[in-house]
Design brief:
Order of helices and strands: EHEHEHEEEEHEHHEHEEEHE
Number of strands: 13
Distance between the termini: 29 Å
Largest sheet: 7 strands, mixed
Structural class: alpha/beta
Strand order of the largest sheet: 3-4-13-10-7-8-9
Strand content: 15-25%
Length: 287
Amino acid sequence: MLLFSVQDATVPANLLTLPEHVFEEQENRWLLQLRAEVRELLLDPLFRDLEVEPAIVEGEPASEIARAVRDYDIDLVTVVTHGRKGLSRALGGSTAEEIIAEAPCPVLAIRPPQHDFVEHQDSLSKIHLNRVVLATNFQPSSVAATQLATQITNHTGAELHVLYVIGDYFEQISALFPEGGLAALSRLRRYVQERMSQLTREEGPRAITNIAEGRPYEEIVRLAAQKGADMIIIGTTVHASLFGGVPVLGAEIERVVRNAPCPVLCVPASRVVTPLPALVTQPVPQT
């Protein structure tokens, strides 16, 4: 496990073993505090029996984390969007979304005090996944997320609630162009029903299909809340920023991450590395 922190100033590689006199100078006092926070975090009972490697670098969080994913061959990135202090303080919403957009592996976004699927008993921590919501659009961007969701639910025995949201813009088109719009909406409804039926045949009774019409992020968040979901899984695609610079997520995915009642596992459409590699028996299609 890699405990990764990005700072806005240079941190000595041997921070944890530096002699005390190094921190006597005023400009180095922040390093002493940082070292104390790292040591405290490493003593967290959650890390017991795990090999944890701390890494502290200087730079921009999103780009540095994306680089670390490649350099350390990371399978899963976890980001907390608010609710903690110090070294482990929460990332701002926009920073977390930049990390999701840039990371070449799945990112689990946690926003305390969300509903959590990790149960802590004494010194033990157990994962209890009972219900998972998979938001899909049956496009290439959701293929990897679908495979990962089925792998996770098959392994844990959790219910898989698959959701397709027919966007409310179809209603707007139908209102403007009644003849063509209504026909297109009817075809889409039939197509979604057929794909959901196919998915149920392939995945069995554990997959529970849901079709909604409205604003996608609202329907995803609503279903997760209604079902008491422990996790939302969604495929992500990124778009070039209007003004250049870092890539950005789609607005609906950003709103899901910001409003979800439970952690959101964001799975990139390409270069996917699963957080459960031992469970994958087939290659993930690439786009």
